[in-house]
Amino acid sequence: MFRAVARACARARSRADAQTCGRTRARDESAVWTSVRATTPRCWLGTKVELAEDDGTSASAREDSAREQTLRRRHVASMRRALRANDFEGVRREFEALAASTTKPGRAAWNVNVLAAARAREPEAALSIVESMLADNIGPDVSTHTAVMQAYVRAGRYGDAFNWLKMHLYGVPKDVEQGFDGEDNVEMDTRYDLSHVIGDMIDGDEEHVSKTRVNSMMFTTVMNGAAKAGDRATVQEIETMMFEFDVAPLADTLHCLLKLERVAGTSASVESVWDRSKLKARALKAHQERVVAHAFLGRQRTQRAAESRALAVKALEDLYDRVGRKRSDEDFAKLEKNNHSGSRYARWTGERGLEEYRNNLVSDDDIKKVGTKEVLIATNAVMLAHAAVGDTDTVNTWFVRMEEDLGINADVRTFNAVLRAEYMRDKIKLGVVDHEQAMMRFQEVMLAMEDREVEPTTYTFSTLLLAHAEQSHLPGVAEVLKLMQERGLALDTTMYNILLGACARAGDLDAALNARASMVKSGIAAGPDTFVPLFAACTKQAEELDLDGDMFELDEEVVGPLLDRTRATLDSVELDMLSSNVEHNTQSFTALVKARGALGQPDAVFDMISELPENIELDEVAIGLSVLAVAKREPTKAIALADSLMDESMVLDPWLLNCIITAYSHLGQIKAATERVQDFIKRGGVPTVATYNALFRCAAQSGSFAEYAPLVMNEMSSRDLKPDKYTRKFIAAVTAGSSVLDRETAEALLKKCPGGDKFFVAEDAAGQDDFDFLADAGFDDDDDDDDDDLLL
């Protein structure tokens, strides 16, 4: 970046001919900005406009100058209106008209172009425009530099924005000047030479930039990007730079610091930042950021999150007080009566009252505009935080308070929060969502939105779609999609992921593949979560092939060609992921491990574990599923795999222990499995009922059930663990075995299980039970699967 800027600086300082100055670097730009460069007058791309010779004293010259200034202001105003509407094509057209009707567009017009590139998240296009400015003999000012940094931050490259800020403040490194002759690897030095900053465009001595060349916005633009990324070190370094250049931390600085704590802190740290700031009462946005930070930290069902939600409500109360309310007639009459000469009084309190007094506002509609944006954002954040835990009472309370107390109408996010709260309430309390009732409620909400002229978004339909998808209710999914189509709403990545999940739960691999093909055709970008249900659908189809309990004990030729086809489909899905440049996250990687294991491909699982993607750190779930995937054919390798991958935090995980016991079951080594459990307990681990159920199964497969099963039952009793349905299932399976002693032992133990010995389940002596790995690991919430909790 510095080499490119330095080259532009050198061209500007040399003041070479216009053709040379007009050359710009070729860059990969968006279609919008490619069109801009293709259709813009040459003066935009760096070719100077030759000025007519004039002594500047004639009346004609003064008239022409005045006319140009008027045209320039008019076109720049139009450019700014287009920019506010994100109409980048409109910005280009107005600039083109300005360049055609004047001798020079002027710095303001150039800056609007740089801002347009920033809005479009195109930093390379912004750099091109800056070079064209230099070629037009117009030096960048504070607004220009801020816009370039904005472009970097919006593109997710806040590190580059930080480097640009340092370049502006301290100058271009000397090494860059020395690297003009073609060196590609130019390292930044810790010292800068101010004389090499963009030509002579920046004032200052060898140590500091002139105060006229810096302002708070330059620092907070970069700070905002670092805060969103949770980069505390960079935020602190920028604070130090602000102190060095004597730039006072204004309200925007407080916003950034609150945003940092939202991402990388706690509610306690949010309050700490708030309490030590002296600016909190001056800006409504600061109140908004405080509320949003607490609400963001409160979107979980934990005690700490509950505390964050309580703080979010308190902060929202403070925001409402700060915005102000309308005084009653009695209060207003009393205020007028006690008024002293020159003192302020208004019908409204807070910020609204100040605006009413300062601007002589008389219309309540005008006064209510004050704080509308901040209140909407903050209230929606609080509602969404409580919606995540199904707290419909709090959600409805703030909905009413916002509209009645402050006169601010709900927007689409407000209604989305209402729908999500009711969905989560039913899911948490009842476990399922009544489809008919959910549809009726959805229609009621849609009518309320129409009354307020609020247009639904794709997200408005996502809750209803999720309610059908989670229960594999494909007709309901189709109905929701039809409603969206009628309103002209296209599916986005989230909606496609929900649709794919519905197909996977229903076990309809073909439907899932068709949905993915539609997603590709629509040009919707995929993410790692897009491929989780596709992998799961392959897994589900593999499990359906297992008609006799364990497909991997059958000859694959007996299973038929569907197994090979499913393997080929899984290969194609993985290839699709690679060709789409989508990197695995832990969930997608684990789902693929699960699918490979279900399809009897332990070698592929080993290859995956041996060549982990750089961004993947295996957790206990992924390791456990890897063990289970390999255990059926290579149980010894599965145990060794677990031992090699576990860290100290995983050693005491009961679910991972249960997976290892399953591997011992395939070896028939009940003694080694028992010793493993004892070692787990000595280390401080706490076994669960599922641990002892796995030992029962291992005892049955080892042929030593009569010897070990009573010991396992006694150990359960000593830990006050009660047998469950799976305990009974494994013990009952032994009653169908050939060993008389094992059968008698099993019948005796069944009396200690729920239901006594009234019912025996006729299963093979091995007690095979291929549970749903993804359900146990939290990847699937199909409540109809009886084996969901087997290992938990």
Automatic annotation (TrEMBL):
Keywords: Repeat. The keyword Repeat applies. PPR repeats lie at residues 492-526, 688-723. Residues 478-546 form the Pentatricopeptide repeat-containing protein-mitochondrial domain. InterPro entries: PPR_rpt, TPR-like_helical_dom_sf, TPR_mt. Belongs to the PPR family. P subfamily. This is Pentatrichopeptide repeat (PPR) protein. It comes from Ostreococcus lucimarinus (strain CCE9901).
